[in-house]
TrEMBL record:
Gene3D superfamilies: RlpA-like domain
Entries under PANTHER family matching the protein: ENDOLYTIC PEPTIDOGLYCAN TRANSGLYCOSYLASE RLPA
Family of the protein in this entry: Belongs to the RlpA family.
Function text: Lytic transglycosylase with a strong preference for naked glycan strands that lack stem peptides.
Organism expressing this protein natively: Paraburkholderia lycopersici
Domain spans labelled RlpA-like protein double-psi beta-barrel: 72-159
Keywords: Cell wall biogenesis/degradation, Lipoprotein, Lyase
EC number: 4.2.2.-
Protein name stated in the entry: Endolytic peptidoglycan transglycosylase RlpA
InterPro entries in the cross-refs: RlpA, RlpA-like_DPBB, RlpA-like_sf, RplA
Keyword Lyase: yes
HAMAP family cross-referenced by the UniProt entry: RlpA
Length: 184
């Protein structure tokens, strides 16, 4: 459980005045119900390389297929306070990587996250558990939040679309191509 708590809140005293802070009595679950039957943690990749758009991590054949998953909800992001900490998958959190935390999706799966009413979207790898704040369904890395344009607002309503391995590969290639067109 300590690994999960590490991604939820930075160390030190927490501000309880906000009113939306997680309290033990508010927790409606002891353990999240998994999506499908592939909730078991996958082995860590063992790398801490830069996963920016230009160096997006290759999608391998062991990535879980979650193509039938769809969810709409509020996403937030986490960054510097957690950079370098272990995630639920065993990887070290890299705030510049395109990753996210979800309560139930299989670790190692890929999703397309989009902001309704805009053309902004990003493909992220689920490598952590969370968010642990009420009313939120996804915690994005800083890099993913920046692609979606929510690094300043902090949260936004998003659509989450599960991807098969083939869909994730194609979407990731589209994302890299679109980004490289912006650079020229």
């Amino acid at each position: 459980m300590a690994a999960l708590a590490g991604c939820a809140m930075p160390s030190g005293p927490q501000n309880q005045a906000a009113g939306d802070a997680l309290r033990t009595k508010d927790a409606a679950f002891a353990a999240p119900q998994g999506y499908g039957s592939a909730l078991a943690a996958l082995p860590a990749s063992g790398t801490a390389r830069d996963n920016s758009l230009a160096n997006a991590e290759a999608i391998d054949e062991s990535s879980p297929d979650v193509h039938s998953f769809h969810q709409i909800g509020r996403a937030s992001w986490y960054g510097r306070a957690f950079h370098g900490r272990r995630t639920a998958s065993g990887e070290r959190f890299n705030m510049q990587a395109l990753t996210a935390a979800h309560r139930t999706l299989p670790l190692g799966s890929y999703v397309r996250v989009s902001v309704p009413g805009t053309a902004k979207w990003v493909v992220v790898k689920i490598n952590d558990r969370g968010p642990f704040a009420r009313g939120r369904v996804l915690d994005l890395s800083y890099a993913a939040a920046k692609v979606l344009g929510l690094q300043h607002s902090g949260t936004a309503k998003v659509n989450i679309e599960g991807l098969s391995r083939q869909e994730a590969k194609a979407a990731q290639a589209d994302m890299v191509a679109a980004n490289s067109n912006l650079d020229h």
